[in-house]
Description:
The complex is a heterodimer.
Chain A: H1 2-31, E1 34-40
Chain B: H1 10-23, E1 27-31, H2 44-64, E2 68-70, H3 73-76, H4 80-90, E3 94-95, E4 99-100, E5 111-116, E6 119-127, H5 131-141, E7 146-147, H6 150-160, E8 167-173, H7 176-185, E9 191-193, E10 205-207, E11 210-213, E12 221-228, E13 235-241, H8 250-268, H9 292-299, H10 306-312, H11 319-325, H12 349-353, H13 356-361, H14 373-376, H15 392-398
Parallel strand pairs in B: 1-2, 2-3, 6-8, 8-9, 9-11
Antiparallel strand pairs in B: 4-7, 5-6, 10-11, 12-13
Helix pairs in contact in B: 1-2, 2-8
Amino acid sequence: MKRPFLACLSFLCAAALVSISVSTNSSRAADGPKLAVAYSSNILGYLEPCG
Amino acid sequence: METGVQLGGLYKKSTYLEQYRKSQSGLVVVDSGDLLNEDEEIPESVVQSAKLKADLIVRILKYIGIDAVNVGEMDLVLGVDYLKELVKKHDFPFVSANLVDDKGAPIFKRYVVKNVNGKNVGIFGVMGDTSEMVSKVQQITGETVSVQDPLKAAEAIVNELAGKVDYMIALTHQGTNRDWVIARRVKGIDLVVGGHDKQKTKDPFEADKTLIVQAGEKNQYQGLLEITLDGARAFHNKLVPFGDEVPDDPKVKAMITEYNDKIAEIYGGTGEKAPPPSNAVQRSAVCEPCHADQVKNWKTSDHAKAYSTLVGKQKQFDPKCLACHTTRFEQPEGFTMKAQQPELMNVQCESCHGLRKDHLGDATRIASAKPGMDLCLKCHTPDRCPTFETDYKTLVEKIKH
Lengths: 51, 401
């Protein structure tokens, strides 16, 4: 009786660990170092519209 | 282009980037050159306002948090010494790896390195070395500045910073065709932010692993490229139009108002405002005795009210605006910043038909009896009037005379 219970518990624990591991990796990929480059060119002295 | 996108949205740029910083970290702000000026020659009477404007733009970009600006040939028109003065006065991050003085020494910082989210980002600038660009720079600077090979300059920086930076940005001022060359030939550049040929890249070009982008002209759009710095280097790019949906930054607006007041004081006299156009005898009166009907029609047109629209917006001393809202701006016998002639305010007969003197002496001589669309497009540019060319026939009817 104990063996099936322990086997089942081990399986559940392993599944939980895999699950945590996958979501951490996924989270790391999404939240990894990011860079945002705000760029412009040829502003040519334009400050604001004339009229 | 979208309608409602405004020219020169500096106070919108400020708001947009401030809002972005509040929601995201890791922002680098760059510009690829021709920031301060549009014209190859600046008339003597306009130099003072052009320098004040350059100083203002530099202060606004510092306030916005600019990280690096490449030097374009139009920036050099204000004088290398003046640019160096701006760098010193405002700690402004002009960069150029291939503009050198007569001793071959770099004039500006060759590159900057910024730490972003724990990663080092290298940013350098180069100008193209086409024969046209080289001769233009020599002409503008009186041969005190030379343009060295941009590929060699870029390679030198990539080698110098190898192992020290995680991401390398090249700010170029040479046109998209040459951007492909630098992206392919110089290994180690991750991003090329181009300039000079005024392209808008909604989708970045991909030259092997290097991205190439450019955000049009006249500050109508903010380019924004988001990249992951992991191995995948996933990216998302957008060009954000500066329309009414982006609020104005009141602080930047106040800085521009202060500039408008200052040039009004310089060119209009302390406390003096230019007389309203309706009170001033216009140069068109000279044409009226022989062309009464035409002048009568012109008086009802928007051309006859062009100057008053500037007064309402406090832009009547801005040379950039006066060029299209006065008659023959800074041309012989035309409206000048220095004289501010009331009789030459508005878009009058001579704006389209040429200087009256020739015609008055000999009625058969007229510079342009029926000017075509090309002339109109000098002011009614696609960025100011997006539908002008398609609506041309209807619009011409409005001013038929």
